[in-house]
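A reminder before we start the practical. When you read a complex entry, don't treat the lines as separate problems. The point of joint prediction is that each chain is placed relative to the others, so the output describes one connected object in space. Small molecules and nucleic acid strands, if listed, are placed in the same frame. In the example below there are two entries. Take a minute to note the order of the lines before looking further.
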Amino acid sequence: MKKFFKYVLKYPKLILILSLIITIAFFVVMRQNTSMETDLDDYMPQDHPAFIYSNQAEEWFNIQDGIIIAIENSKGVYNQSTLEKVKSLTKKLQSMEEIDKDDVKSLYSSDNIVGTEFGLDVKPFFKKVPQNHEEMITLRNNVRDNEMVYERLVNKDETVTLIIAEIGEDTFSQELYHRLLNLVEEYENPENLYVAGRPIVEGTMAYLGPRDMQRMVPLVIIIIIIVLLLVQRSIKAAGFTLLVVFFSVIWTFGLMASLKIPIYAVSTMIPVMLIAIGVADGIHLYSHLHIFMKNNPQADRKTAVFDMLNEMWKPVVMTSVTTAVGFISLLTSEVFPIKYFGLFTAFGVLSAMLLSLLLIPAGLLTFGLPGWKIKNSNVRKNENKFLSAIAHLVIKRKYITLILTALIIGVSIYGMTNVWINSSFLDKFEKDSDIVKTDTFINKHFGGTSTLNVILDSEEPDAFKKPKILKKIDEMQADVESSLTIVGNSFSLTDYLKRMNKVMHSDSARYNVIPQNKELVAQYLLLYEMSGDPENLWEVVDYNYQKANVTFQLKSDNSIALNSSIDRIKEHLPELKKMGVSVNFAGSGYKGLVFTDLILEGQIKSILISLIIVIILLSLMFKNIKAGLIGVVPITITAMISFGVMGLLNIPLSTTTALLSSIAIGIGIDYAVHFIERYKIYATETRDPQLTGQKTMRHSGRAILFNAMVVIAGFLVLLASVFPPNRSLGALVSMNMFTSLVGTLTIMFLLLHIFNVYFKEDDK
Amino acid sequence: MKFRKIILSLIIALLSYPLATFAQVEISGFDIIQNVYNRPTGDDQKGKLTMTLINSRGDQRIREIKQYLKDFGYVEKKIMFFISPADVRNTSFMNWSYDEEGRDDDQWIYLPALKRVKRISSDSKSDYFMGSDFTYDDLGDRHPLEDKHILLRQEKLDDEDCYVVESIPKEEDYMYSRTVTWIIKDKWIGLKKEFYDEDGEHLKTLSVQNYKKIEDYWIITNSQMYNVQKEHTTNMILENLEIDTGLSDTWFTERMMKRGI
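Here is the predicted structure of the whole assembly.
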């Protein structure tokens, strides 16, 4: 290795130029080939049974997410201006290329099933907006009498009416989102218009998240530069430390682009990871150089650089390899973007390693050593005093350290039991943001903005014409609606049949029930097909009456709401099963729930796998199993505290927050490896545990402290972000860095000391 | 004098010849549609109608119906009984369609499970017939005066010389913005018809797959309607057709609907 460095570093300028050329090449590829992938469906493992079923069901029943437009008129919606707007907006939406004509539901486009003095009539509520008071009253009464519309499209006090436009998952775009908002704005005054629904929430998020990040990232970098300058006290050192990070980021994204792999939402976390991890190499290298120069003020440039490399290449390679392995363990995830995330972050970490070992020495050889004022340095003395004091205190008050650690672990475990998973999109927004306010407004007046589809499946054709089964479904709908406040409404074939039974018995409320026999059900359905638009039926039942779709409307899209509804529905499972009906779930909300579970499951699996691999690697590298086991202590504590704090502070686990545990591992290992490596060196050198502790603290401890300070300061900037997920990202990364730092310098150091690692063997 | 008469008639003949041929070629769109509408199909008819409904996934539903119809001149009465599927057996449907322009059909349905005859809304000529892709209008009820007809061209279709006529409804909010029909010249049978929705987009295509001469009348026996937008198909087959059997007027009453077959 020494020879290799000697050989390569004969040509420092060539190295600088070559790495610059490679970086520029990757940059060009990146500019040309990078594509973003925002379609969430692409994230989901398409061969997972839950997704296969849900996707199928969505096709069977044309289940799509709806954009909900609420039109509010405080004086009531039954006036010409408001109804004219309902009609015009419905028509405009219907004529949009992305929206199917039949998928726009409003008072204007909906059919009214009514009983006339002769029989049954299925016709629109209005074609021309009522021109006089009498017609208006008739319309109002028609709506009030129709359970299928009243409180679904018009609210109870008749001040709000809805237009729901269903839209395919792959058709929603940023552009359509803005077009819709502009269109709706034209209809304001005197009515108030609100836009909500899952596509809008997703659209807003896809728009806000990256935009906020774009604003925040430069700030993060500026802060990191400032803190780097403060701790390294050299423009050259800070410059090259950062250059390594930037180059490795460009290499990573360049490689992704040249392999034609699109950037997924999780990939935007890669720079975050690389900034947090990549600065470490530079900080440790320069820190060692600083100490060497202090001890050998007369040494020339070359000697200093080669001492740095000889002493430090091992820990740099070891930390990078273990970190990379930690990320590679994410390949066990079932979610493709996460596999890519793990793989490319690992590549980035290794690039950063290569660049630090070549670019930094080449830079030093070309541009000279940093101009540190070695001689009179009070700061430096204070630093050493502080670090020595830590080493001293930790060992002197070892019981306090141990008890405190145990206490913190205990509290974290308690917190971990409270961790909950949230697949909600809406919860990612500020409570007082427009989107949350709109959602609350619509939920207050109607059944709910989120949906859960329950798919019933029977072996037998015509099963869903049987009154026994239909009554059971009706019972289930009523039970779930009445027992959960979060469930506002439900809709299925039963609602059609009850409505028809009622109107065929001269609107008698007594007949608002499922018909008594199968023939009557079949004949009502035939009658509906003959008088109405049979297409509507195929959204609740399939052609052979073998599959049925029950839609529940929920007032929240968070996992608690979905899970409590699913649990309640499942209580009806045994009875349905007896009738030969199986139950499955579908829809984007449900898929999101399954997806989040999958990510977490994968995340926990990969944490466990990487822990084991890291223990083995460390044991091999240090040729000591004890060192391997003690080395993972900071990681474990960091991860526990991370999850514990989330549980205690009620921060739900989501796709982003779950991935942060990878940072804990990546960084925790770095600290541990640097520390143990130095500890080993000083142990053999001094054979004095006390002195070894002091010296290691002053060497690695110092660099670790600097590293943590830089990254914590950088990520704390994200607390000023307007987008809550980015805020929790900043807080959690900072916290993970801090606990890793403290864990390494206290409990890990103490354990090394207590178990006499690297001393016991010598005694033998 | 006689000579002058001959000359005169010659001149008239010569003058009128091009006019006559011109008139023969340039038959108006309206006349063509009127001829189709008025094509005699007998005074009464009975037979079995098999309707196969096929959705975009290829699922099929078959409905068998026994139907009777009689032309009373000013009104055409039709009564239908479901044979299968079993759960709707004996459900019957009666339709009276009036010649008078603008007068809505009268429609009744009898549900045996409810044991009651019900009227169905009458302003629903654009409703789909028994869940099929045919509306009542598509089944031949639409009066020629309701549309403006333009003869577009003449061309061969399935080896038949056809007129191609475009019909545009006079009514503003009608479900079709226009239709284009291929009509066999000497038989006055619509062989194919394309329907365009309110936005001018292709909605459905009707194709006649078989027609027969029964008792001197041209009768369409096999036809298919394909809804392009919904990818839904309806096949209609008429079998066991009997024409002019002298069906009694009493066949077309509510009492008959309840009696079933």
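Discuss with your neighbour: The longest strand of chain B covers residues 202-214. What might explain this?
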